[in-house]
Write a structure and sequence with these properties.
This protein is α+β, with helices and mostly antiparallel strands. The protein has twelve helices and 18 strands. The chain binds adenosine monophosphate (AMP).
């Protein structure tokens, strides 16, 4: 089976690594160069997207910010899974909010801003503080502004206006203004849906962000009510999109209630722990769904966590001496804050996982993993 992935980053690479044993060959479309490459070596295989489409039995995507023309060509081939509509929803916060409303799913109070009049209206209708997010081209905390009180409004409007003037691929820009949610924690649900409509989800994952970027994910073992609430949201969104593949949903948890923050129509960073912690990892399950193979079990094998390596191209080798620890590099060149790799770690129970996380936090340099130590210490405390 041959699959073309739109995007040639670490997610395409991990898909290729995961499905080689199933005899699924992955080629990746590098949107920057317009060529089709081997996702591991990045050697060019085809010079044109059309050759990649011809090669593929199925086409999928590793990111949602793909230009609409490319999506249209792939959709027209009849091979694209999930559909271009589902991919576009993940890349445009306006469509995402429409979807959440249509599915009756709880999310933060918000308003769409395309003009100064909309901005002024949002300041009156929503209560402070606000977070303003670019509708297009924003991810990992980029294209976002925080407004604590009205005194900052004029300055922030000038910034937003400059951002609008930059334009995005000829599409009209907008910003979604959201009320800040006083959440207890951030969690996410990663799950798979096949073409028959069957769904399987992984255990919820508790996520910690540093400067708006995911830094640590820990699979949550048992909270049946919360898991059921998240699964219901997953099923309604996946059904509405007639989704095929892995879909990730990020939530804010307030008490026992979940509010959707955003959805990602793809394998997700908060699901990387599944490589060592679940029966079938998210990368394999994505390709199983896309290629019409039966979904694999999403059960947790052992409590597991993932630590992102941001902006570093080396870590001390001694981390590999910590039991049940694996290291995954993405083969990318070093840039400040860039996702360069991740570390997965598991334990026989949550206490052992917490102890191993603490060992790792002691070995990793605080300069690059500055919030890791306090976060894993608070996780350990949460267990006792
Ligand atoms: P996003 O790009 O929407 O995932 O936002 C990045 C991070 O900003 C989230 O993971 C949260 O930590 C924070 N954030 C985003 N939206 C809100 C909100 N409405 N209330 C509180 N924090 C938020």
């Amino acid at each position: 089976m041959n699959v073309l992935v739109l995007g040639a980053g670490q997610l395409a690479r991990m898909m290729a690594l995961a499905v080689k044993p199933l005899n699924i060959n992955i080629r990746a479309f590098d949107v920057g160069s317009g060529t089709v490459v081997d996702p591991l070596s990045t050697d060019i295989i085809f010079g044109e997207l059309t050759q990649g489409i011809e090669f593929a039995d199925f086409i999928t995507a590793e990111f949602e910010h793909i230009d609409h023309q490319t999506l249209a060509i792939c959709q027209a081939s009849g091979k694209l899974r999930p559909s271009s509509q589902a991919i576009k929803v993940g890349g445009d916060r306006r469509l995402e909010k429409d979807l959440l409303i249509k599915c009756g799913v709880a999310n933060a109070q918000h308003q769409i801003i395309a003009t100064k009049a909309d901005f002024d209206q949002a300041l009156n209708n929503l209560s402070m503080p606000l977070i303003l997010k670019s509708a297009l081209a924003g991810y990992d905390g980029k294209g976002q502004w925080r407004l604590k009180d009205k005194a900052q409004a004029e300055d922030i409007w000038l910034d937003i206006k400059a951002f609008f003037d930059g334009g995005v691929q000829g599409l009209q820009h907008a910003v979604v203004a959201e009320q800040m949610v006083p959440f207890d924690r951030e969690v996410s649900l990663v799950g798979a849906r096949d073409s028959q409509g069957n769904t399987l989800v992984y255990p919820l994952t508790q996520n910690h962000h540093t400067n708006g970027v995911l830094s640590v994910s820990i699979a949550i073992q048992i909270d049946e009510a919360l898991q059921a609430q998240a699964k219901q949201v997953f099923d309604s969104i996946a059904k509405e999109l007639n989704y095929i593949g892995i879909l990730a949903i990020e939530f804010f948890q307030i008490g026992e209630q979940l509010l959707v923050n955003e959805i990602a129509p793809r394998v997700h960073n908060s699901g990387h722990w599944t490589q060592q912690g679940a029966d079938t990892c998210q990368f394999e399950n994505h390709l199983r769904a896309v290629c019409d193979l039966p979904l694999g079990s999403t059960e947790l094998i052992r409590p597991s966590a993932m630590i992102n390596i941001l902006g570093e191209d080396e870590v001390p080798n001694e981390i590999l001496s910590v039991a049940s620890t694996t290291l995954h590099w993405y083969g990318k060149s070093k840039r400040p804050g860039r996702k360069m790799g991740h570390i997965n770690v598991s334990g026989n129970d949550e206490k052992q996982l917490a102890e191993r996380l603490i060992l790792l936090a002691d070995m990793l340099p605080e300069t690059a993993f500055d919030e890791l130590k306090p976060y894993v210490a608070s996780y350990k405390k949460q267990l006792s």
